[in-house]
Write a structure and sequence with these properties.
Blueprint: E1 7-10, E2 20-25, H1 29-36, E3 37-39, E4 52-59, E5 66-75, E6 86-91, H2 95-107, E7 111-112, H3 117-124, H4 130-140, H5 145-155, H6 158-182, H7 193-211, H8 214-222, E8 224-229, H9 236-244, E9 262-268, E10 271-277, H10 287-302, E11 305-311, H11 318-326, E12 332-337, H12 347-351, E13 358-361, H13 370-381, H14 397-418, H15 423-441, H16 447-454
Amino acid sequence: MNNEDTICAISTPIGEGGIGIVRISGKDAISIISRIFLPKKNKNLKNLPTHTIHYGIMKDDKTGEKIDEALVSIMKAPNTYTKEDVIEINCHGGAIPLKRALELVLKNGARLAEPGEFTKRAFLNGRIDLAQAEAVIDIISSKTEDSLRLAVGQLSGILSKSIIAVREELISIIASIEAAIDFVDEDIEFISRDEIGKRIKKTVDEIEALINTADEGRIYKEGIATAIIGRTNVGKSSLLNALLKEERAIVTPIPGTTRDVIEEWINIKGMPLRILDTAGIRHTEDIVEIEGVRRSRETIKKADLILLLIDGSLRLSDEDKNLMDDVKEKKLIVLLNKSDLPSVVKEDDIKKFLPDKEVVSISALTGEGIDELKAVIHNLLFKGGILAGERPIITNLRHKTALEKTKRSLENLQNSLKENMSEEFLAVDLRGALNAIGEITGETATEDILNKIFEEFCVGK
């Protein structure tokens, strides 16, 4: 990748729409647009002020053919997304106008941007740090308003400020230690070992507090994989439809109607839940249904939360009991379905097998108990909610891993202090911590790390 190139890409989804955008960034952006865009009042685009938008015609500079009417935004460095000159061509949103506009830009000297290259340039040019860059893709993939607020908070630098504060404290400590090493013959104590120990303990506590937010952050970013399980015809697909408030799954009285895992997203008090409706688990000779049961069991293994559905209008079957035994170690809520019918199975009957699990009585047919179920799900996963924008939360596994590496290096330092090892050993441990935490904001990130992060972006962002 050559960061001196002028790059371009379509930045809006391909398909029919009112507006489509072709984005250009780089030193030749204004020169390129000047050759293929004719402003209505025949203005010289190079002399126009920054952050202005102009109406005109896109044309092929070789043939003179008019391609489309367009609005062109001119944004001059350094006050742009990439800190380079940026042009955005707002043309009609059909696939053909966008394709023709992109082709014109490419013919006039730009190259097609790689995935995430606009944001990568924003990082490399110092407009945002690496944690903020990753927040961009989190914003795009947000499943709920709360996950969006978290991502926007990270983009604004809430997490970065905490990481930078920790890093600056470590730099301050290592500077004092290395000064003591350099001036060892001067009999000057720049920082006492007791002071180092106190400051490192405080820093370790701060890092632990951040690490402890990771599970909560993962819930809001990735959602909770929630498997609806049960034997055949207990109402699993009806429950999925009741949660979604739409007829998503086929419901019939015929056992084995659901043959595969059906996946949908729902929002419960700001938490994204990835609901997985599984095939009924029973012994069967049907080859297709056997595969469905196998997939159901695989889904159960991977799920974060199990909703075990039991037909409360019928006596507990051996299949019900076997399922309860299979999932007793999982995070689990037992649902006694068909509360609209005379009840045969009571909560106490379930508690004999699963004494520490929540039991909720519902009717997937009428919707009775669905609101109570949502409240139980939320309370089971964690108490309270996120005050987005008020505290840093770890939503990225890479960040959590880097913090854990930082913590291990600082714990090694604490052990070195206890064993009264020389300042050189303390400095080595601190350097390890600095390198690890610097990976989060990008100060010490390798090219491999950068490539892995930005290749997950879409082209045009």
